Amino acid sequence: MSKNKVSKTSKMKKEKKNVVIVKQDKSKLIKKKASKERIHAGKLTKQEKSKKPRIVTFACNWCSYAGADLAGVSRFQYPPSLRLIRVMCAGRITPTFVLDAFSEGADGVIVSGCHFEDCHYISGSKKAEKVVNLTRKLMHLLGMDERRLRFELISAAEGQKFATVAREFTKEIKKLNEKKHCKKK
Fold first, then answer.
1. Which of 31, 32, 34, 173 has its CA 20 to 30 A from that of 62?
2. CA torsion, points 31, 33, 37, 42, in degrees to nearest 10?
3. pTM for this one?
């Protein structure tokens, strides 16, 4: 290795910690400054939050997740604001999951399961509905807006319904965010 290359890399190492070095074509070194979004693992600024709400969706593996997959494969348009988390059964969701999602910066949460008569775990969707209702009561006690939590029953064949729910809930969350920001001013 030549002295020139060694001195360049040592200079780069001495620079700030938020510099990322990317190697291209074996000999060229390119440095890129890491943005706060990369450093903080996707956390959005207040300005970005008002434009793009973050919605966490807990989707049942057997029906709702397959419905979301069908929506994507069928190219049904829905906002990219949803973050899908696959769970084996919607009945597995606890209030802690939902409240943790909100504490981590989610603007809204959707819990989505099989139709009651089609549940692979027989009563999982009924249990999920009870948990969502309990969580809404907890949110009310904590001073949170209960409309930020939604429960939906979506089967594997309802890709269009998944896309519709995603669009409607995103619009509702955007309106709630606008009202929230107006009250603070």
1. 173
2. 10
3. 0.72
Looking from the CA of 62 toward its CB, the CA atoms found within 13 Å total 16
What residue type is 121 in one-letter code?
Answer: Y
77-115 confidence digits (pLDDT tens): 999 999 999 999 999 999 999 999 999 999 999 999 999
The amino acid at residue 90 is A
Are the C-beta atoms of residues 84 and 59 closer than 8 Å to each other?
Answer: yes
Q: What's the pLDDT tens digit per position in 108-143?
A: 999 999 999 999 999 999 999 999 999 999 999 999
Distance of CA 176 to the CA centre of its chain: 17
Q: Tokens in use for 66?
A: 């397959």
Q: Measure the CA–CA gap between 136 and 99, rounded to whole angstroms.
A: 10
User: Residue 160 corresponds to which tokens in the numbers above?
Assistant: 């269009």
Q: Give ranges for CATH 3.40.50 in the chain.
A: 46-184
The two most distant CA atoms of the chain are separated, in Å, by 73
